[in-house]
Design brief:
Elements (H helix, E strand, L loop, with lengths): L7 H16 L3 H16 L4 H12 L6 H18 L4 H5 L4 E2 L3 H10 L3 E5 L5 H10 L4 E5 L5 H12 L4 E4 L5 H10 L3 E5 L8 E6 L2 E6 L1 H8 L3 E11 L2 E8 L6 H18 L13 E2 L3 E2 L2 H10 L6
Parallel strand pairs: 1-9, 2-5, 2-8, 3-4, 3-5
Antiparallel strand pairs: 6-7, 8-9, 10-11
Helix pairs in contact: 1-8, 2-4, 3-4, 9-10
Length: about 300
C-alpha cells in the first residue's frame, strides 16, 4: 500500500486546527500546561540553557542562576500557550493593568507617529494585542521565521488580534517602516537582541551590548515620538504594562542607552521573564561577533560583568 504524502499546505492546515483546539482549553489549564512543559524542558541540559546560566552568572551576577533556568522556560511555555487565544485577557480588563493609560490616550488623540521600543519580556504578543484593543494604530517589526510552516502559523495567530507585522525584507524594510510612520501609526520594535541589523554598542547591565538602532534612525527621520513599552507578569493570570516617553531632544545614542537602562531594571527585578538563552552579549567592541562555542568559552573564562 502506497502512503500518500501530506502536502506542505496540508501540514499548515492540520497544525492550525490543532492550535485552534488548544486555544479553546480554559486559560488556567493552558497556563499550567505551558508552564509545566516549559519547566521540565528547562531541566534538560542543553547548550542554550548553559548560555542562559552563564549570562545570568557573569552578566546579572545572579547568586543561583541554575534555579532560574527552569523558570525562564516555564515563562516561555506560558507565553506560547496563552498566545493561542488571548481573548480571556482582552475581555477582562482586571487582568492587564496599565498605569499609563492616560498617556496612551493622549498619544491617540495627538495622532502622531510613534516608535515604541520594547523587548521579549513576559508575553510580548499580549502587549501588542492589548494596545490595539485600546485604539493604538500599531504595526510591529519582525523577522520572518526560517520555517514557512512556522511563519504561516505566526501570521495566523497575530492576524487574529489585528497585529500588523512588518516583516523585515532585504531592501524593502526601511521603506515599509517609513510609510507606516508617515501614516502616523505606532511602530513597535523588539530591540533587545543581537541581530544582523544596523546597531550600536550600549551598556546593558553594565556590559556593552550590540543594540539595534535602525528603527530609532528612521523614527528621527520621520519626527516621531519615542517611548518604551514593557510588559511584565505580576501573577498567575495578571500583567502590567508600562509606557514611558523619551525626551525628543535626545540623540540616537542617548535613546539607546536609556532604553537599555530601563530594560536592565526589568531584567534585574524579573530575570525569569526574559530570554536569557539568547546570546545577547556575543558581539564584543574589540573581539567582534563570537561563535556560540567561542562565546561560551568567553563567558567561562572572562569576568564579563567587570569589563
Amino acid at each position: 500500500m502506497i502512503k500518500k504524502k501530506i502536502p506542505p499546505k496540508g501540514y499548515v492546515v492540520i497544525v492550525k486546527g490543532v492550535l485552534i483546539l488548544l486555544g479553546l482549553i480554559p486559560l488556567p489549564v493552558r497556563i499550567l500546561m505551558g508552564r509545566s512543559l516549559g519547566y521540565f524542558f528547562g531541566l534538560i541540559p542543553t547548550r542554550d540553557s548553559k548560555i542562559a546560566k552563564l549570562q545570568l552568572q557573569q552578566i546579572l551576577k545572579h547568586p543561583c542562576p541554575k534555579s532560574v533556568i527552569p523558570k525562564i522556560y516555564a515563562s516561555i511555555g506560558q507565553t506560547l500557550f496563552e498566545s493561542l487565544n488571548l481573548a480571556p485577557y482582552l475581555r477582562n480588563s482586571k487582568r492587564v493593568y496599565c498605569p499609563d493609560q492616560e498617556l496612551v490616550r493622549e498619544y491617540i488623540e495627538k495622532d502622531v507617529p510613534i516608535v515604541a521600543l520594547t523587548a521579549h519580556t513576559a508575553n510580548w504578543d499580549l502587549l501588542a494585542a492589548y494596545m490595539i484593543q485600546q485604539g493604538v494604530k500599531l504595526s510591529t517589526v519582525g523577522r520572518r521565521a526560517r520555517s514557512k510552516t512556522l511563519q504561516n502559523i505566526l501570521e495566523h495567530i497575530r492576524d487574529g488580534y489585528g497585529i500588523k507585522t512588518l516583516w523585515r525584507e532585504k531592501g524593502s524594510g526601511t521603506k515599509i517602516i517609513v510609510t507606516e510612520l508617515k501614516e502616523r501609526r505606532t511602530v513597535s520594535a523588539l530591540i533587545d537582541q543581537d541581530t544582523r541589523v544596523s546597531s550600536v554598542f550600549s551598556p546593558l547591565l553594565g556590559v556593552q551590548a550590540r543594540t539595534p538602532s535602525g528603527i530609532v534612525v528612521l523614527g528621527k527621520r520621520c519626527d516621531a515620538e519615542f517611548v518604551t513599552a514593557f510588559i511584565t507578569r505580576t501573577g498567575f493570570m495578571s500583567y502590567r504594562i508600562d509606557i514611558k516617553p523619551f525626551d525628543k531632544s535626545m540623540s540616537l545614542e542617548e535613546i539607546i542607552d536609556e532604553y537599555n537602562q530601563r530594560l536592565g531594571k526589568i531584567l534585574t527585578n524579573h530575570p525569569e521573564q526574559w530570554v536569557w538563552f539568547h546570546k545577547r552579549w556575543r558581539s564584543h567592541p574589540t573581539l567582534g561577533t563570537l561563535t556560540s562555542q567561542k562565546y561560551v568559552e568567553y563567558l567561562e573564562t572572562k569576568k564579563a560583568g567587570n569589563e
